[in-house]
Amino acid sequence: MITNCYYLLVNQKRKMDSLERWLEFLIEPESNTVRQLELSDEAIEQTKTELYRLSMNSKEREMLLYKGKSYI
């Protein structure tokens, strides 16, 4: 919540740069700020769509977890 307030204040003074947009997405993908970013940033919109698609498919989620463990 505090993070969102900070970004809203910062965003009023200047546009968010790419790193700030992605940090906001990673911190709280359901925030109002991210919803606004989805309208203007196609990459964030596609990433969020793919994230939800993967989270709904338990078989793909298991494969990603297994793949991630193989890198460690």
Q: Note the run of SSEs as H and E.
A: HHHHH
Tell me the domain tally. Answer: 1
Helix content: over 70%
- Gross morphology is elongated
Which band does the percent of strand residues land in? under 5%
Uncertain runs are: none
Rounded mean pLDDT score: 78
Compute the CA-based radius of gyration: 15 Å
Largest sheet: none
Structural class of the secondary elements?
mainly alpha
Beta strands, count:
0
Query: Counting H and I runs of at least 4 residues, what is the number of helices?
Result: 5
Distance between the termini: 33 Å
Pfam family, one: PDDEXK_2
Task: Name the descriptors.
single chain, 72 residues, 5 helices, 83% helix
Please provide a written account of the structure.
The chain is mostly helical. The chain has one domain (2-71). 83% of the residues lie in helices and 0% in strands. The protein contains five helices and no strands. It has helices at residues 2-13, 18-27, 32-40, 42-56, 58-71. Helix 3 packs across helix 4. The termini are far apart. The mean pLDDT is 78.
Helix-strand layout with pairing:
Elements: H1 2-13, H2 18-27, H3 32-40, H4 42-56, H5 58-71
Short description:
The protein is an all-alpha fold and 72 residues long. It is 83% helix and 0% strand.
